[in-house]
Amino acid sequence: MATSANRFVHRTNVIDRLGRTVVYAGELLRHPVYTRFLHWMVGIFFFLALLSGFGIYLPWIFRFFTPLFGGGATTRFLHPWFGVGFVIFFGLQALNWLGVMRWTPADSRWMKHIKEYVTRSDSVEAPETGFFNAGQKMQFWEIVCGCIAYVITGVIMWFPEIFGRILVAISYVVHDMSALIMLFGIFFHVYLSTFGEPGTTQAMTRGTVSEAWAWTHHPAWYHEITGRDPQQALKQAEAEMAARERAND
Amino acid sequence: MSDRGTLRIQQISAHPGPVAGEGTQRQDKVCKLIDTTTCIGCKACEVACVEWNDMPFQTTYFDNTYQTMPDTDWNYWNLIKFNEDQHDDGSFAWLMRKHQCMHCEDPGCLRACPADGAIVQYSNGIVDFQQENCIGCQFCVSGCPFNIPKFNPNTKKVYKCTLCSDRVGAGLEPACIKACPTGCLHFGTKEDMKFMAENRATQLREVSGFQNAGVYDPDTIGGTHVIYVLHDATKPERYGNLPAKPRIPLSFTVWKDIFKPIGLFGAMLGFVGVVMHYVFEGPRREQPTPPVVRIDPPPPPAGKEN
Ligand code: HEM
Ligand code: SF4
Ligand code: SF4
User: Fold this and answer.
1) Res. B259 pLDDT band, cuts 50 70 90
2) Cβ(B185) – ligand 3 distance below 6 Å
3) Beta-carbon count within 10 A of B132 CB
4) Ligand 1 nearest atom to the CA of residue A30, by list position
5) What pLDDT is recorded for position B1?
6) Nearest C-alpha to atom 15 of ligand 1 is from which residue?
């Protein structure tokens, strides 16, 4: 269903009622309070797990991470719990976003043009780009797979006496690889949601984005919720800007 | 658990930088020799170990064999493994083996350990755990080919035989050696013990009719500082799962030493990548953007100019 990946459907819950999202003129609601809450819980637990994990991953490089958590033994005690927090909150987020993360034929076409996306040869995204683009969906599904790998291998390493040494030795490698892949991906994620695509950060803080952001980065989503044609809207905005320029001259 | 005054350290788990004082004092490699052919299974060595190390008593159980407990434990580092072995011709024999840490020359426990200084190897070959630095992750358990380190769920630390490093450091033999009534245990330099062991194996082959008698000192882990004389060195598994070719899992050698730093480097390329992307390509901004005043560097001149 093309529409399911263009529109984010959400029923207001308790968490949403704890906060509010103010949508100013010229803005669109992007992420409700519940989504934002989950996202930042995921973010916090991710970095806690990452730092405590790296103190154990390469102790001769990251020896300064373990004291942050109260020494080696406490770090070792806390890391699995950070991981549990990360997986639970990301699991809720995955349920929250399941519909909108569904892979569509448009996403496959987006992947074919990834080079143009990276080199910024088009000023706006392809018109069929929905609520999330294919890159975001790939990252999402990578984290889903990574979480499954973390849970399985993590539990094995948490209770080694049940699973035996060979399973532990294998888990150790898989757990590490999952962390490395996720870390690699997070650099792109943090970059694109801050410096790489200005105007994105507020989607996860205040919960809104500008209309211009929407027709630039997610035209099909813009069309879906406003009913307006994103290209037409862009042309109109350009005309208005040109008129202002002329008035200033 | 060591007398740091007399024992020199050679290897430290997860330690950045050099080992202080390494190589400043030459020490003979020590070794414990266990002649399984003269062991009578009296458990004097077990008692001596528990006594010397002042360990709380370990409950025993009865399963219709002489095996008093299934395995060593955090408070029981030395256990005689009783094996009723059936020969090919149908006859039986008792194979008794004193089971404890082998003090590997290339210790899998030390390689696996991620805590700085939780496991050390002295230059005399003894591998010793320093519980004050142990973080309780139990990776050593998975790194050890002999299933030796044992976790204490109360202290969240791991314990094993120290080869009485405290006694050896003071010039004494390990407690088990002192207690053995048949003289099947010997302690000395690795060289001397190897010589004695080979002599005994030759005697077993030539005089006592054990054609396969030999010495267990597996070279897959660089040899051990506890060696056995076995009636049948071709099948060490018969002596209660003594592995013929003990190996450290690749996770703690190839992955840990080589691919971990490479993997981290690979992940950090993501960081370099996004910084470079910002520098070379710049951000994608919301459209429309204000008119471009200048692009640096200027595009190459198209055709004739001026
Ligand atoms: C400082 C760190 C972070 C920042 C600034 C940040 C920012 C953002 C922003 C602005 C969005 C919304 C994108 C949009 O609406 O299109 C987003 C989405 C998302 N975030 Fe984060 N985030 C951070 C850390 C993390 C971490 C650690 C994870 C998980 C491990 C994560 C997982 C996600 C996922 C799966 C999405 C949805 C799809 C996507 O945009 O890739 N984020 N983040
Ligand atoms: S037998 Fe196990 S615990 Fe003992 S030194 Fe070897 S690897 Fe370490
Ligand atoms: S449990 Fe074993 S591997 Fe882990 S820190 Fe302690 S000695 Fe090292």
Assistant:
1) very high
2) no
3) 10
4) 15
5) 44
6) A203
Q: Give the per-residue pLDDT at B234.
A: 94
The secondary element (H helix, E strand) that includes residue A214 is: helix A211-217
Beta strands in chain B (DSSP E): 9-12, 30-35, 79-86, 92-99, 119-122, 127-129, 150-152, 157-159, 185-189, 214-216, 226-230
Q: What are B187-217's pLDDT values in tens digits?
A: 999 999 999 999 999 999 999 999 999 999 9
Q: How far apart are CA B169 and CA B147, in angstroms?
A: 26
User: What is the DSSP code string of B143-163?
Assistant: H-TT---EEETTTTEEE---T
pLDDT, residue B23, reads 78
Q: A169 in contact with B at a CB cutoff of 8 Å?
A: yes
Are B122 and B136 spatial neighbours (Cβ–Cβ below 8 Å)?
A: no
Local structure of A29: helix, strand or coil: strand
Name every residue whose Cβ is closer than 8 Å to that of residue B24 and which is 6 or more positions away in sequence.
B8
pLDDT score of B306 more than 70: no
* Residue among A55, A82, A57, A49 nearest A71 (CA): A55
Q: Please judge whether A123 and B287 are an interchain contact, meaning their C-beta atoms are less than 8 angstroms apart.
A: yes
B156/B142 Cα distance (integer angstroms): 16
Pairwise CA distance, residues A206 & A188, whole Å: 22
Residue B143 alpha carbon, nearest atom of ligand 3: 3
Topology of the domain covering B4-248:
Alpha-Beta Plaits (3.30.70)
Give the distance (Å) from ligand 2 centre to CA of residue B102.
6
CA nearest ligand 1 atom 36, residue: A140
CA separation for the pair A105, A19 (Å, rounded): 36
Q: Which CATH superfamily is domain A4-17+27-248 in?
A: Transmembrane di-heme cytochromes, Chain C (1.20.950.20)
Could you tell me the distance, in angstroms and rounded to a whole number, from the CA of residue A196 to the centre of ligand 1? 13
Ligand 3, pocket-test mutation among B156, B158, B160, B251, most atoms within 8 A of CB: B158
A26: phi > 0 → left, psi -120 to 50 → alpha, else beta; which? left
The residue ranges of every structural domain in chain A are: 4-17+27-248
One digit per residue, the tens of pLDDT, for chain A of length 249 reads 445 688 898 889 999 999 999 999 999 999 999 999 999 999 999 999 999 999 999 988 898 999 999 999 999 999 999 999 999 999 999 999 999 999 999 999 999 999 999 988 888 999 999 999 999 999 999 999 999 999 999 999 999 999 999 999 999 999 999 999 999 999 999 999 999 999 999 999 999 999 999 999 999 999 999 999 999 999 999 999 999 888 887
ipTM for this prediction: 0.89
B289 chain-A contacts, CB cut-off 8 A = 123
Domain residue extents for chain B: 4-248, 249-283
